[in-house]
Design a protein that fits this description.
Elements lengths: L3 H7 L2 H7 L21 E3 L27 H7 L2 H17 L4 E3 L22 H16 L4 E7 L12 E3 L2 H8 L1 H10 L3 E4 L3 E2 L2 E2 L4 H11 L5 E4 L7 H7 L10 H12 L5 H19 L10 H15 L1 E5 L11 E5 L24 H9 L4 E5 L9 H12 L3 E7 L18 H13 L3 E6 L15 E4 L7 H9 L32 E3 L8 H7 L16 E8 L3 E3 L4 E9 L5 E10 L11 E10 L4 E8 L6 E3 L4 E3 L3 E10 L2 E11 L14 H6 L1 H21 L7 H12 L4 H7 L8 H11 L4 H5 L1
Parallel strand pairs: 1-2, 2-3, 3-5, 4-6, 4-15, 5-8, 10-11, 10-12, 12-13, 13-14, 17-25
Antiparallel strand pairs: 6-7, 9-14, 16-18, 18-21, 19-20, 19-24, 22-23, 24-25
Helix pairs in contact: 2-10, 2-11, 3-12, 4-5, 4-12, 5-7, 12-16, 13-16, 14-15, 19-20, 21-22
The chain binds beta-D-glucopyranose.
């Protein structure tokens, strides 16, 4: 056991300051004198991008490694075990490439489809993103290799990412943008967390004390260290104070000097520096326990696994007349350059140098066998609409039984560093699809893109659409497997596909101006928005077809009414009612009919992927705890759940709810009373103790009216209603001010008296 405290005590101030900055682009500093080794970090997330020259920064040439499917496709598998296994494979590759920490996963929420990096992120839904992040980290770290959970937080666009301030209200931050980080940290303890470049409410992520120290380290108990995104540190001393431990890349002598001076001037508490050093040391020695084997990983085995994974995330969007799987075609036309030059990953720091790349054209030929005649046409040029290529494609289509068009987004459209301007596919692809569809009614469109694209321009003209996203290096083989039914598609959308960009939640609050982007849609991101606004997406969140069908039955709950501390168990039977084996993603959403706080119509709180043979039935079980029913109360600064009725919805997508049942939650939460001098009548009525006092007050008012009108029959209800109607949103204090003359004490003293009765300390309240 290494004695970290003793090592720390032997480091000089200068050494400690230097230690909190990298030695170069990818490594920490070693201190030979004390036997402190250096560790190596590499991108991430869906492959290991270990640069060949470790002193080279940026997108330098990297060693070959398996390019697994990027996060967009991993999330579409909805398969936690599979994602964990991807992590294990990545861990093995890290060991073989001598990498101690893999820089991923990215769990940022897809706020706008335009974000250039959406392919690196999982979902628009925090629950799904958190489950995926947790599984990924567990997988990698089970091998004794670290991860870096990124980019913390609210890095939801590339536009001006170094300076933009994401302006987010506290509840939205807690409920939408933080939970994926929270879950991953609490459940799988990533060795490191990477702060984002941007600001959150005016403060750089790298200096954000509330986010880094108060929430990440104290509230969620991160046990590793926080590293800056590469170049995210603007002010080194402020960053240390905020809770950022390691600055990358290094070296940075000037910043180190500033830290030394700040300690000497008492501007920075040396303990803050010590804590950063301790956290980094702990992880360095943890990493060094894993022997890096320097043996080659099994490239073929990893490639085969990557193919399985890719196949499981492919989504069948449309399959009219069961055109798929391909059964008895004697000729196939394959159209589109992407069939031979596949699009399988996005640009930027996650760009992997693959060990090999499947070519969909070849893979389809292989699986189809000798008996199928395969024709090919390019279909589109790199730029502009080429009529000759379209005509050629139509000819080939006319001569063949079925047509498979490979289209989507060209590589340059999606990358780290910049956002897209549109969700449209290139016109050349749209025109090609429309023309070919007229030449052959059995036209299948295979899409390769890293994030949402609009489909309405052509989707009605073709019977089949497959969203194959970015499948990694074996994505081409995976598409062939799905086309021929070797794999039954079981992917579902981890993001809503809107009809148009104008329909998207952040449309009028993106990309921001004057250094700020206002998250004006609040909680209403993704399906939460489409639900609330009754806007029909073209394909909803959670949607995806299969070559078989599934029936949902027997939705049961452990008890109709349950206590928050016990939670509630939910079971549902799923049956494969078709003819082939398949997997279904069963989704559980919660709806609260009469919420006290503003709430989305439904929110996903559970999902499970189940594999079934034809006619087989399995029971899928969920456990819902109090957090599943909670919202973040900015008044209480904590998660709060209301007493009362909720509805549990179980379905095949966010729009395809098959079964529902009601439950009653009994809260045992003992929330401190938050009434104060400004509280309105409505606030008082909402508070259980406050209500008691108001009821008393109303009774008094009724008596008063009765006494004033002894000869009249007083309608008590009317008196009450009148009072509640006109005064409901009035602070009690103001209300009393009107009648202060008639009160036994001042209006202020009366409210104070009431506050004392509900247990509020007036001194605290005044401060
Ligand atoms: C990216 C990170 C990446 C880092 C190192 C940054 O530009 O935002 O995701 O891990 O570079 O390459």
């Amino acid at each position: 056991m290494v004695d970290i405290k003793s090592l720390l005590s032997q480091l000089t101030l200068e050494e400690k300051a230097a230690f909190c900055t990298g030695s170069g682009p990818w490594q920490t500093i070693d201190v030979e004198r004390l036997g402190i080794p250096r560790i190596t970090m590499s991108d991430g997330p869906h492959g290991v991008r270990k640069v060949q020259n470790i002193e080279e920064f940026g997108l330098a040439k990297s060693f070959p490694a398996t390019c697994f499917p990027p996060a967009v496709l991993l999330a579409s598998t909805w398969n936690k075990d599979l994602v964990q296994r991807v992590g294990e494979f990545l861990g093995d590759e890290c060991i073989s490439l001598d990498v101690d920490i893999l820089l991923g996963p990215g769990v940022n929420i897809k706020r706008t489809p335009l974000c250039g990096r959406n392919f690196e992120y999982y979902s628009e839904d925090p629950y799904l993103a958190g489950e995926m992040g947790t599984a990924f980290v567990k997988g990698v770290q089970s091998k004794g290799v670290g991860t870096s959970l990124k980019h913390y937080s609210a890095n939801n666009q590339e536009y001006q990412r170094f300076i933009i301030s994401a302006e987010i209200d506290e509840r939205t931050l807690r409920e939408i943008y933080l939970p994926a980080f929270e879950k991953t940290v609490k459940e799988s303890q990533p060795w490191t967390v990477m702060c984002a470049y941007n600001k959150i409410n005016g403060i750089f992520a790298s200096e954000h004390y509330d986010l880094l120290t108060r929430i990440m380290k104290s509230e969620w108990n991160l046990d590793g260290f926080i590293v800056s995104d590469w170049g995210a540190v603007q002010n080194r001393v402020a960053a240390l104070k905020g809770g950022l431990d390691l600055q990358m890349p290094g070296p940075n002598d000037l910043d180190v000097q500033k830290v030394v001076e700040a300690v000497k001037n008492n501007e920075l508490d040396e303990n803050v520096l010590n804590q950063a050093v301790e956290r980094i040391l702990k992880i360095i020695f943890r990493a060094k326990k894993t022997k890096k084997a320097h043996i080659e990983f099994d490239k073929e085995k990893h490639h085969e696994f990557a193919r399985k994974v890719a196949a499981e995330g492919i989504i069948l969007l449309k399959n009219e007349d069961n055109v798929l799987p391909i059964k008895d075609a004697s000729s196939i036309a394959i159209i589109g350059k992407m069939a031979k030059e596949p699009r399988f990953q996005g640009g930027g720091s996650s760009l992997i140098n693959p060990t090999k790349v499947d070519n969909p054209f070849q893979e389809i030929k292989k699986l189809g066998g000798e008996s199928i005649l395969v024709r090919y046409a390019d279909g589109y040029a790199k730029e502009g609409i080429d009529k000759t290529l379209i005509d050629e494609a139509c000819d080939v289509a006319k001569q063949s039984d079925i047509v498979i068009i490979f289209s989507g987004l060209p590589f340059e459209h999606e990358s780290e560093g910049y956002d897209r301007k549109t969700i449209k596919m290139p016109e050349s692809h749209i025109e090609l699809i429309k023309a070919v569809a007229k030449s052959n009614t059995k036209t299948i469109v295979v899409l390769n893109n890293g994030s949402v694209i609009s489909l309405y321009e052509w989707i009605d003209s073709v019977p089949v659409v497959i969203e194959a996203y970015l499948g990694g290096q074996a994505g081409g083989g995976a598409v062939a497997d799905v086309l021929f039914g070797k794999e039954n598609p079981s992917g579902k959308l981890a993001e809503s596909f809107p009809k148009r960009l104008e329909h998207t939640p952040s449309y009028i609050n993106y990309p921001g101006e004057a250094g700020k982007v206002r998250y004006g849609e609040g909680l209403y991101v993704g399906y939460r928005y489409y639900d609330k606004k009754s806007i029909e997406p073209i394909f909803p969140f959670g949607y995806g077809l299969s070559y078989t069908t599934f029936a949902y039955s027997n939705l049961t709950i452990s008890s109709k009414s349950f206590k928050d501390i016990d939670g509630v168990d939910v079971n549902v039977d799923i049956t494969n009612t078709g003819k082939v084996p398949g997997k279904e993603v069963v989704q559980l959403y919660i709806h609260q009919p009469n919420p006290k706080a503003d709430k989305p119509n439904k929110e996903m709180k559970g999902f499970s992927k189940v594999e079934l043979q034809p006619n087989e039935t399995k029971t899928v079980a969920f456990h819902l705890d109090s957090r599943s029913f909670a919202y973040y109360s900015v008044i209480h600064k904590s998660w709060v759940w209301d007493n009362g009725e909720y509805e549990i919805l179980v379905g095949a997508s966010s729009k395809d709810i098959r079964l529902r049942t009601k439950v009653i939650l009994e809260s045992t939460q003992n929330l401190p009373c938050k009434l104060n001098m400004d509280s309105t009548l409505r606030d008082w009525l909402d508070d259980p103790n406050g209500k008691f006092i108001i009821d008393e007050m109303i009774a008094q008012r009724i008596n008063q009216v009765k006494m004033q009108n002894p000869d009249m029959e007083v309608d008590e209800n009317q008196v009450k209603q009148e009072l509640l109607m006109w005064a409901i949103d009035m602070p009690l204090l103001r209300m009393f001010k009107y009648v202060e003359n008639q009160l036994p004490m001042s209006a202020e003293d009366l409210v104070k008296y009431f506050l004392t009765r509900v247990g509020v300390n007036n001194e605290e309240n005044a401060s």
